[in-house]
Design a protein that fits this description.
With 388 residues, this protein is mainly beta. The chain is 7% helix and 44% strand. The protein contains two helices and 33 strands. The protein is globular and about 70 Å long.
Length: 388
């Protein structure tokens, strides 16, 4: 075989292998999780206003967008951050170049969109995490700088490359977006999104939408500011219920924890980690959220208005003796609502759903089923409050 033929043979074999690899990965690269706690993995498409999820070797299942907690278009999602572009007052994040903020309307060629300048809350120049964004002082105008510093002042000019800020003490200062010290320009506060849906794209954008138009080519957004903006399927990362429709329980402030007699709270209860300090994602929490609590410990949260359902996975950690059986109980305003079947260490995490209606608070408690005097802990993984 000649060298040229050998190169062609190797290349063609490599291409065939890569094609097979892509096919295999594509077939299991997406998933849909619904409000009832069901998660289905397979090939994800959209058509006629519905999601279609096709498990490997199975038939396609239609899922209404109203039932979807999250539709994930990749097997693993990148860390969510603020990408260069703008943040609107309603919490939507747009990426890519835009025209000067001093123009009557600001144009975004990527989305074929023009918005009033007053709708823009932040201009983002460098990528940063939401934890950094949270350090911005509310009600202040100026520039968010690397290291947590804030340069307060009046915004005199700004576009996607630089900004001019006038500080009453230090005078005018021109800040260049290419300088990594400048993270963002803050013109006004950005609210948390109140949209029913959130659409996350591969370029870092995050759109809120009141309704979605789904078809074979992608999703069309329904919203007064950017109605009919179309996101093609190839550009989608995730479509999820908006924060007004679901809340991770552990993101809410605890109302009360009743520890075991003679023990401190941290000795028998831990949020978003085990009591020993280990990560929950290694124990079955797909989003790393939840808590571990000792038998008999009650944790209570106030329920935000409108939320009526709890979905959670419950599990018994390996440190509990194999003969011990454990139940996970949910109480609302002191009344028992539901409890799991008895579980033991080694059992797979089990879904638990509590439909409690309109209440002021819910309490979650791990209770030994047998023996009645057993000691140990239980895991509550990815607890989410929802309403439809």
């Amino acid at each position: 075989m000649s060298f040229a033929a050998l190169k062609f043979f190797d290349w063609s074999q490599g291409v065939a292998f890569l094609v097979c690899l892509v096919i295999v990965r594509t077939a299991h690269a997406a998933s849909i999780e619904t409000f009832d706690g069901t998660k289905t993995t397979g090939t994800l498409t959209m058509d006629a206003g519905q999601f279609l999820i096709t498990p490997g070797g199975g038939a396609a299942v239609k899922v209404d967008p109203a039932d979807v907690l999250r539709a994930q278009f990749a097997d693993a999602l990148p860390v969510e951050n603020f990408s260069p572009g703008v943040v609107l007052r309603n919490g939507t994040r747009l990426t890519g170049p835009f025209t000067a903020l001093t123009d009557p309307v600001v144009k975004f060629d990527r989305y074929k969109l023009a918005l009033p300048g007053g709708e823009i809350a932040w201009v983002v120049y460098q990528p940063f995490l939401p934890t950094v964004a949270a350090t911005a002082p509310p009600g202040k105008v100026g520039a968010l700088l690397a290291g947590g510093d804030f340069f307060e002042g009046t915004i005199k000019a700004a576009d996607d490359k630089s900004a001019k800020v006038l500080n009453p003490i230090f005078g005018p200062r021109t800040l260049v977006g290419g300088n990594k010290d400048l993270l963002a320009l803050i013109l006004r506060d950005a609210r948390r999104s109140a949209a029913l849906f959130e659409v996350r794209t591969k370029d870092g954008a995050l759109f809120g939408a009141d309704a979605l138009g789904l078809d074979k080519t992608g999703v069309t957004l329904r919203h007064p500011l950017y109605d009919n903006v179309k996101i093609e399927t190839k550009d989608l990362l995730e479509i999820r219920a908006g924060a007004v429709r679901y809340q991770p329980l552990t993101a809410l402030k605890l109302a009360r924890v009743d520890p075991l007699p003679g023990r401190r709270v941290e000795q028998c209860f831990a949020v978003d980690k085990t009591i020993a300090g280990d990560a929950l994602d290694s124990l079955g929490a797909t989003r790393g959220k939840g808590f571990e609590s000792a038998f008999g410990v009650a944790a209570t949260w106030e329920v935000p208005a409108g939320f009526t359902i709890l979905n959670v996975l419950v599990a018994v950690p390996s440190g509990v003796p194999p003969a011990t059986r454990v139940t996970f109980a949910v109480y609302a305003d002191g009344r028992p609502i539901t409890r799991s079947s008895p579980l033991a260490a080694g059992d797979k995490p089990a879904p638990l759903r509590a439909n409690f209606g309109v209440v002021r608070s819910i309490s979650l408690r791990v209770e030994p089923a047998s023996p009645a005097n057993a000691t140990g802990t239980g895991l509550w993984l990815d607890p989410v409050l929802t309403h439809r």
